[in-house]
């Protein structure tokens, strides 16, 4: 099984056939879901959340197994740097959690978080996937399904479930702050407790012990005090989310006028 998971391919290139294929599949999925919007109901929402959440959870699990096992030496060593608690992996947990929630304020906040915040990582990866592509088939499929699927899910929710209201945006911001605090707690506690050994553990790329590897933020991290970096990180992503919110609000207004 490990040999199958680690099957190699020629490393995809940005806007090569592999990349373009996933973009096309994403817009086909959006088109199909758009056609189904008149039949939208709670059951349809749970089906869409299930399709995305369960499949990407399985792919994430397979990825973790593949990266933890060395097939040459037949040994296990967990790759702490790949621990799945990043902004881009949050839709996995949100979609699975929301499967068990009825429509209420908490679910609206969680789904709004996907619509306004995690969509930023999805769009960035869809437009600039170079750093995410490797020579392993499983990882490339996982990467594109995770991000393209999250993008499709965000658009689907904005078409049907989540309205661009002030309350929904504030709710998404609250979820984002909670996620940042959890990530920071994990970064500090795992480092202090020595779980990670000499490996890098940088959830949300905001660890006070390891430089951020995110474009632009990696420069800021090295130039300013850590607390200022953290504040810039939160404000910048929130500004991006607010711009998404304004764009959606503008489109809805034009559609209703």
Overview features:
single chain, 257 residues, mainly alpha, two-stranded antiparallel ribbon, globular
C-alpha end-to-end distance: 55 Å
How many alpha or pi helices? 9
Main beta sheet strand tally, sense and closure: 2 strands, antiparallel
The spatial strand order of the largest sheet comes to 1-2
Write the H/E string, N to C.
Answer: HHHEEHHHHHH
Instruction: Give the oligomeric state.
Output: single chain
Number of strands: 2
Mean pLDDT: 95
Radius of gyration from the alpha-carbon trace, in angstroms: 19 Å
Structural shape: globular
Structural class: mainly alpha
Secondary structure topology:
Layout lengths: L1 H4 L11 H19 L6 H27 E2 L4 E2 L13 H9 L6 H23 L9 H24 L5 H28 L23 H7 L2 H31 L1
Can you walk me through this structure?
It is a single chain. The protein has one domain. Helices cover 67% and strands 2% of the residues. It has nine helices and two strands; from the N terminus they run αααββαααααα. Strands 1-2 form a two-stranded antiparallel sheet. α5 packs across α7 and α5 packs across α9. The longest helix is centred in the last third of the chain and has 31 residues. The mean pLDDT is 95.
């Amino acid at each position: 099984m490990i040999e199958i998971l680690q099957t190699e391919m020629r490393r995809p290139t940005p806007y090569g056939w592999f990349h373009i294929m996933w973009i096309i599949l994403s817009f086909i999925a959006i088109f199909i879901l758009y056609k189904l919007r008149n039949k939208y109901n709670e059951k349809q929402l749970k089906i869409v959340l299930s399709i995305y959440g369960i499949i990407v959870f399985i792919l994430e699990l397979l990825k973790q197994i593949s990266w933890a096992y060395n097939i040459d030496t037949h040994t296990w060593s967990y790759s702490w740097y790949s621990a799945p608690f990043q902004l881009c992996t949050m839709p996995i947990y949100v979609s699975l959690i929301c499967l068990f929630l009825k429509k209420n304020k908490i679910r609206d906040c969680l789904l709004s978080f996907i619509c306004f915040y995690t969509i930023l990582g999805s769009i960035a990866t869809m437009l600039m996937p170079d750093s995410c592509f490797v020579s392993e088939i499983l990882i490339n499929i996982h990467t594109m399904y995770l991000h393209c699927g999250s993008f499709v899910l965000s658009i689907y929710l904005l078409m049907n479930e989540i309205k661009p209201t002030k309350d929904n945006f504030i709710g998404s911001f609250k979820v984002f702050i909670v996620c940042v605090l959890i990530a920071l707690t994990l970064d500090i506690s795992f480092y202090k407790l020595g779980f990670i050994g000499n490996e890098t553990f940088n959830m949300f790329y905001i660890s006070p012990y390891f430089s951020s590897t995110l474009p632009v933020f990696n420069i800021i991290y090295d130039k300013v005090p850590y607390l200022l970096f953290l504040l810039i990180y939160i404000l910048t992503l929130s500004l991006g989310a607010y711009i998404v919110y304004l764009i959606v609000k503008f489109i809805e207004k034009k559609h209703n006028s």
